[in-house]
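re the bet — no i am not wrong, look at it urself. input seq straight from the record:
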Amino acid sequence: MLAAHADRERAVDVLRAGYGEGRLEKGEFDQRVARAYAARTVGELALLVADLPTGPVPQPGAAPAVPWTFLPAPRPRTNGKAVGAAVCGLLCVPTFGFTGLPAVILGHAARSEIRRSGEGGDGLAITGLVLGWLSTAGWALVLTLVLVVGITVG
């Protein structure tokens, strides 16, 4: 974050206090003051006063090196039903489609919860829905063909 004039003045005040307490020599004090007035960021100012009792901005606890506004936003939690829907959808092939109906049910429930709560996992829920509906449609087609063949042969 870019340093403001007030930030530089606070850092110089801390340096003056350190010099007045005998923590800095005259030459080191002059160098640090010159660097404080030339500093472009708050981080540079913090480094100048890091070994002194107080920093440029008095804060409780340790201040992060990067302001919170520049930190990446936390990723939303993935919905468990969406994961279940995707797993059931992917298991449709090895289980001959028996997990298709649970994939559809879990997928719709997950999408409803995701819209309400803002959780992640919408892509997983859609994957489960698509694979579940394909499996269900496949079974419906097979049963229809069996029924038609049974009627025509019988």
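see?? The chain is about 65% helix and 0% strand. told u. also The radius of gyration is 33 Å. so pay up
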